[in-house]
Amino acid sequence: MLNTPIKTLPRILIYKSPKAASVLGWSNYKPAKPYLYRMVDTKSGKFVGEMIGAPVLHNNKKAKQIFYPKNSPYKSFYIGYLSVEERFMGYGKEFIRFAKNLSKQSGCKGRVHLIASRVYDRYWPPHVFYKKCGFLSNDSFMNHYLDDCIKSNTQIESSIADNLNMYLPVGDVPEKIQTKFQAFLNFLKRFI
Is the pLDDT score of 175 beyond 50? Predict the structure, then answer.
């Protein structure tokens, strides 16, 4: 909330829709109410994009490590949908910056996560864009592949552009994840 008058308008304004957004599949995050955020370019006066998101708590044992490599519960801002009208204008990066600020304001410590998908654009999947913005995946092959795409200035192949869980790292130390087999071997080592 602003307490002082605005002397000049910023280039981009982002505002929250007064009603909560209705999104398919959002029922996995029961405590969260997703909101629609819209972006306007003040120089042209045009609507340039929208984002749907909300902070969510990951405390389900199976779902904890889907995004962040953590065993303990954590809170993160989930971007369920992000779309911009024009590419290469900086609008997507502004939405990511905005989501990171919302994450800090809502107690998520700057954590932001999403699912990169080619569902909305088969020819320009957003995976490389999110990687350029600093997002990582728990899939090390995809991290290296996306780094190679960035270095060679190429787009991801549509054949491997499936849904990819990605998160914005905030300095969390990855917790060691033990498989049941590793735990069993550690148990046996105590008796040898």
Answer: no
Q: How far is CA 49 from CA 22, 53, 55, 147, in A?
A: 17, 14, 20, 26
Domain boundaries, the chain: 12-189
Task: Residue count of the chain, please give it.
Answer: 192
Residue 39 has pLDDT above 50, yes or no: yes
Please say whether the structural domain 12-189 has been given the CATH code 3.40.630.30.
Answer: yes
Q: Which residues pair with 41 in a beta bridge?
A: 12, 46
Backbone φ, ψ for residue 12 (5° rounding): -125, 135
At 59 the three-state DSSP class reads coil
Question: Residue 177: its pLDDT value, please?
Answer: 46
Q: Scan for tokens 């303990």, then name that residue.
A: 72
Half-sphere exposure of 84 (CA within 13 A, CB side): 20
DSSP readout, 83-122?
A: EESSSSSSHHHHHHHHHHHHHHHTTSTT-EEEEE-SSS-S
